[in-house]
Design goal:
mainly alpha, about 350 residues, about 0% strand
Length: about 350
């Protein structure tokens, strides 16, 4: 904001007294202080001290940049995870995000990195610390291992699925199952799926997890383990996996049934159709059981319906000559409904896959 004399009170701009005697020019010049050469101290203050301040600022910035770069090097992060510390779970999370970043795709095939990270997970499982940060660290390490495209990441994840000592282990087991699903999908893209299907240790761990029940007939966390196992069995595939998924269509936990149906659709198994139809029913209250708010219920309903729509399209591609008229009609109803536009659009796209 500019300021002129009008912004001040009148008294701040003194007027010239017409009776005032002007000072002679010679007297005015002689009244000024003598001009002296700048001293060394003045030069020091004017130039050197500001230069030192700027240098310190630049040095601090470079130090932080170097530390940040060092902290984000994947091998350095893994090395840091070997030493117990409060921020281990954060480093594991950073590593998982690095592996998910498409610009770091080459890391997914780094065998040494996968082996070193697997050793970290095995060490953490053996230590068995149950404090919140230790459990979180194992969760994030599992997620990071799932992002690889090398089989060396698999054995440690299988060990995590099988480690069941206390209720805190359920979080890690769930994360390990989800990680195996991602890893299996990555591996199938670069090798024959039968390699995974022939892995006896993997299949046994998944089948056992799919039968995970609390000893006294309940437990939502155990139900989540079955649900994650169902999804992973669907990704891995094979006769033993699909046989078990057929049985899980009758699981008491809705999400386990839904994941079993989605898994069967991956392999063109028509047994999935009845559960798919239930998932595609917007009035099906069982879909939203346990959700407390209206917004959560709507979100869950839309998520289940979206997954079912995609699974239906996948099934139609694998079974083009099968009788899927009822499924087709349900998709057409969704397409022409007042449901959210993304569901209508997905249903319309899925219908293009039907004969």
């Amino acid at each position: 904001m500019s300021i002129d004399s009008n912004d001040y009170p009148d008294s701040s701009v003194p007027e010239t007294d017409s009776a005032e005697v002007a000072v002679p020019v010679d007297d005015a010049v002689s009244a000024l202080p003598p001009v002296e050469a700048p001293t060394a101290g003045f030069i020091l203050q004017l130039f050197l001290i500001p230069m030192m301040i700027v240098s310190v600022i630049v040095g601090v910035w470079l130090a932080f940049t170097w530390m940040a770069h060092l902290g984000n090097d994947p091998q350095d992060l893994v090395a840091a995870l070997r030493v117990p510390n409060e921020s281990g779970w954060q480093k594991a999370d950073i590593l998982a995000e690095m592996l998910r970043n498409p610009s770091n795709d080459q890391l997914k095939e780094d065998v040494l990195l996968a082996e070193n990270l697997a050793q970290v997970l095995r060490g953490q499982l053996a230590a068995g610390a149950m404090d919140e940060k230790s459990v979180l660290m194992r969760v994030f390490v599992c997620r990071a291992l799932g992002e690889f495209r090398v089989a060396e990441a698999l054995p440690a994840l299988i060990e995590a699925v099988r480690t069941d000592r206390t209720s805190e282990d359920l979080l890690v087991r769930d994360a390990a199952l989800q990680a195996i699903a991602v890893l299996a999908r990555n591996l199938v893209a670069v090798q024959d799926a039968k390699v995974l299907q022939g892995n006896g240790q993997l299949l046994a761990a998944l089948l056992d997890a799919s039968r995970d029940y609390a000893e006294e007939g309940g437990g939502n966390e155990h139900a989540k383990i079955r649900s994650a196992a169902a999804y992973t069995l669907g990704v891995v595939g094979g006769q033993d996996a699909t046989d078990r998924l057929g049985e899980m269509l009758r699981d008491a936990f809705p999400n386990a049934r839904y994941n079993a149906a989605i898994g069967l659709c991956r392999h063109g198994d028509m047994r999935a159709v009845p559960v798919l139809l239930a998932m595609l029913d917007p009035q099906n209250k069982k879909v939203v059981d346990g959700e407390e708010s209206d917004s959560e219920r709507l979100r869950k309903r839309d998520l289940v319906m979206m997954n079912a729509i995609r699974a239906a399209g996948r099934l139609a591609v694998r079974q083009p000559d099968s009788g899927l008229s009822e499924l087709r009609d349900r998709l057409a109803q969704i397409r022409d409904s007042d449901l959210p536009p993304d569901l209508q659009s997905a249903a319309s796209e899925a219908l293009t896959r039907f004969p």
